[in-house]
Amino acid sequence: MPSPDSITITVNKDECSGCGVCATEAPDTFEMNDDDQAEVKNPVGDDMEAIMAAAEGCPSECISIVDKSSGTQIYPEA
Ligand code: SF4
After folding, report:
1. Which domain holds residue 44?
2. What is the pLDDT of residues 23-38, one digit of tens each?
3. Residue 11: CB within 6 Å of ligand 1?
């Protein structure tokens, strides 16, 4: 599994329901903004397990994780 400093995390805000699951699973990586939408506050804030748990736990599937060096999409799996 890659490390947090080798990935890019993106939140598709158009799809974000504001449920807060990601900020619970990886609280040092994601935060909720004033519009109740998730933002990446620190892409290396949590370990990879927590970041993956956030992405996998997102009910709207709006968190994507891409390997920076290869450009391979890690989540959601293609
Ligand atoms: S888990 Fe997904 S839908 Fe819920 S706040 Fe985070 S990004 Fe938005």
Report:
1. 4-75
2. 999 999 999 999 999 9
3. yes
Asked if residue 27 has its Cβ within 6 Å of ligand 1, the reply is: no
Q: How far is the CA of 71 from the centre of ligand 1 (A)?
A: 23
| Ligand 1 atom nearest to 63, measured from its CA | 7
Which CATH number is 12's domain given?
3.30.70.20
Q: Is the pLDDT of residue 77 over 90?
A: no
> Is the torsion defined by CA of 39, 10, 63, 48 positive or negative?
negative
Which tens digits make up the pLDDT trace of 52-67?
Answer: 999 999 999 999 999 9
CA separation for the pair 3, 34 (Å, rounded): 29
